[in-house]
Design a protein that fits this description.
Elements: E1 5-8, H1 43-57, E2 60-67, E3 74-81, H2 82-95, H3 103-107, H4 128-139, E4 141-144, E5 147-151, E6 168-169, H5 170-183, H6 187-199, E7 219-226, E8 235-242, H7 254-271, H8 275-278, H9 280-294, H10 324-340, H11 347-369, E9 370-371, H12 373-380, H13 404-409, E10 416-417, E11 420-422, E12 425-427, E13 430-431, H14 432-441, H15 446-458, H16 460-463, E14 472-473, H17 478-485, H18 505-515, H19 519-532, E15 542-543, E16 549-550, H20 559-573, H21 587-595, H22 606-609
Antiparallel strand pairs: 1-3, 2-3, 4-5, 6-7, 7-8, 9-10, 11-12, 13-14, 15-16
Helix pairs in contact: 4-20, 5-7, 5-20, 7-10, 9-10, 10-11, 10-14, 14-15, 14-18, 18-19, 18-20, 19-20
The chain binds alpha-D-glucopyranose (GLC).
């Protein structure tokens, strides 16, 4: 069979200073043969169509780096699937493109006028506060080639120095995306998924501090530049990603790719449109993310080993190693990937790897990260220096590290996953995102999930108080703060990442509560937040033990505070939508646990469970 692929220079980026740091999507991808189909449309419609078609035609399967012979710059070229372009042409001819028809609906194959809102969605009545939030969220939308592709991190008109808060952050966009999905405005989410995919790093060069293959950027910015750097050529827009090379502390965003997979599955579940997740380039993108996550290293745990600051907490906070947040997202992303990977040749091996990892990871977290009063008492009485595979205190935890705050704080009922586990080190701090996402993704057992929410309920005054919800608890103080954060003045006790209260976490709390039939808790939290958020101009975070003050250096009109609130509100009105973002307990592992209720060791059939 002859190949339908032809090498074209569509992604050539002659001004590339570092590998793949500047990729722009070309203006000339849509072949001239498609244009006549668009005759008779208004210029706006024609522009929208052209953009859509261009993106559709960009089903690249192979990207390659080369050095331009003329000027020695690093360029990128890709193979473009010409068969796809032919199919597209047929499709357009068959659908008789006329004025007033929704491009999105047509391309999704829905073939109807108007929006592609999920049919299950009942547009609820909005109050004034929700209207304000929607207006602000829409103002934060960023366009690329005339199309919405994301939302910027913060849009405070009075802020003269936005740093990188004028960029689209992958993790920050997730609540915006879910809000748009809930509103039936799915196009921005689709665009975001496909454009960020184009930014994914695909080659590693150690010498120039470039990102590893498969890494998704932390954020990107739409820039207007002169075509080929020449003023006379006019301008065009490019997407400029940041993989952490410009971020404060140069932190690689391990969570970005995981969030991307989670959102991809949510998009498919919400719209019923599986054509995005089934695209060749999307399937390749998923595999590249999995490859970097599942790669062998020196580590002997099934958890992902990462540096400090590789997730929402993107500064030094002593969470390097195996932080819960990354493990919860990793687990959920693996579950989502298993669901959406096409069962084609070569995928079976990957699915087997995913299954092994899921089983080992859930065992590890459920067994060794879980803390309740019974477990704490066990740790309190641990013997140390046990040399054998049968050791009870496997990680050689010295009971002396159990702090007084924990002995006083842990309630009689309820429990949670601790923040981190390493040899001779348990980070007993509570981290909200990791615990909530363990519930959502199904990493926690149903019983553990119930107990986590029970703990939030009984420790409400510490974790919610006057603004939901603490990023972690308790704060690092004094000498601990100095050593662990490196004396970071932004992360002083009960501020920012160090025990600050973050309104954006409301949506994750809400999804977890809905999943566990505890919507009452989420409603209580939303009620508290709505009293202040608008009045305080939608801050990024709040300070002090009870969250009474707007954060010292908090941005105002922070988009994910706005979107987090909206998503929580909309989810409570449409609780069925929580299923876009949740998974039930993995049956394979549940069966294993039921059959071995007393098993404290991970010694099941090597075929299934050994990684
Ligand atoms: C801060 C947060 C990070 C967020 C970014 C943009 O750096 O720690 O999680 O993505 O701001 O809002």
């Amino acid at each position: 069979m002859s190949s339908t692929f032809q090498l074209v220079d569509v992604l050539a980026a002659p001004r590339c200073r570092h590998l793949s740091s500047r990729i722009h999507l070309p203006k000339h991808v849509v072949s001239a043969s498609l244009r006549p189909c668009l005759r008779g449309l208004s210029s706006l419609e024609e522009r929208t169509w052209t953009c859509k078609l261009r993106e559709k035609a960009l089903r690249t399967t192979k990207r390659e780096r080369y050095t331009s012979a003329s000027d020695g710059h690093t360029c990128i070229r890709c193979e473009q699937n010409l068969a796809e372009q032919g199919r597209l042409l047929e499709f357009i001819n068959a659908h008789n493109v006329t004025s007033g028809l929704s491009v999105e609906a047509l391309l999704n194959g829905i073939g109807q006028k108007g929006s592609s809102a999920p049919s299950s969605f009942n547009a609820p009545v909005e109050n004034a506060l929700e209207k304000e939030a929607w207006d602000l969220l829409r103002e934060a939308v960023v366009t690329y080639c005339g199309e919405p592709v994301g939302t910027i991190a913060a849009k405070d008109p009075t802020d003269p120095n936005p740093l990188n808060y004028d960029q689209v952050f992958i993790r920050d966009f997730i609540p915006s995306a879910v809000a748009f999905l809930l509103k039936g405005e799915t196009e921005i989410v689709r665009n975001f998924l496909l454009h960020t995919l184009q930014l994914q790093s695909w080659e590693k060069t150690v010498d120039c501090y470039s990102p590893g293959q498969g890494l998704m950027p932390a954020s990107f910015k739409v820039r207007t530049v002169h075509i080929d750097g020449n003023e006379e050529n006019g301008t065009e827009e490019i997407l400029d990603p940041d993989f952490g090379e410009a971020a404060i502390g140069r932190v690689a965003p391990v969570d970005s790719g995981l969030w991307w997979i989670i959102l991809l599955r949510a998009y498919g579940k919400c719209t019923g449109d599986k054509s995005v997740q089934e695209r060749v380039d999307v399937q390749t993108g998923i595999k590249m993310i999995l490859k970097v996550c599942l790669a062998d290293g020196f580590d002997m745990f099934p958890t992902l080993l990462v540096t400090d600051g590789s997730c929402m907490i993107d500064r030094r906070m002593g969470i390097h190693g195996h932080p819960l947040e990354i493990q919860a997202l990793f687990y959920h992303a693996l579950r989502c990937a298993r669901e959406i990977l096409l069962p084609e040749e070569g995928a079976q091996d990957l699915i087997r790897q995913i299954n092994s990892r899921l089983a080992a990871l859930s065992f590890h977290i459920q067994e060794y990260y879980w803390l309740d009063i019974v477990k704490l008492n066990e740790i309190y009485r641990y013997k140390t220096e046990e040399y054998s595979t049968e050791a009870v205190n496997k990680f050689n935890i010295y009971p002396e590290q159990v702090s007084q705050w924990l002995l006083d704080w842990l309630p009689e009922s309820g429990g949670y996953f601790i923040g981190n586990l390493q040899p001779a080190h348990m980070d007993f701090r509570w981290f909200t995102l990791g615990n909530m996402w363990s519930i959502c993704g199904g990493l926690a057992t149903p019983k553990q999930s119930e107990n986590i929410l029970r703990l939030v309920e009984s420790k409400w005054q510490d974790l919610v108080a006057t603004m939901p919800i603490k990023i972690c608890f308790p704060a690092l103080t004094d000498e601990e703060w100095r050593i662990i954060t490196g004396a970071d003045p932004k992360n002083t006790a009960w501020s920012y990442h160090n025990g600050g209260s973050w309104p954006t976490l409301l949506w994750q709390f809400t999804v977890a509560c809905i999943k566990m039939n505890r919507a009452d808790l989420a409603e209580r939290a939303v009620e508290i937040a709505e009293k202040r958020l608008s009045r305080d101009r939608w801050p990024e975070y709040y300070d002090t033990k009870k969250g009474r003050f707007i954060g010292k250096q908090a941005r105002l009109y922070q988009t994910w505070s706005i979107a987090g609130f909206l998503t929580a509100k909309l989810m409570l009105k449409n609780p069925n939508a929580a299923s876009w973002l949740t998974c039930d307990e993995d049956e394979t592992y549940a069966i294993f646990r039921e059959a071995n209720p007393q098993k404290r060791k991970f010694k099941a059939s090597p075929k299934i469970f050994v990684v």
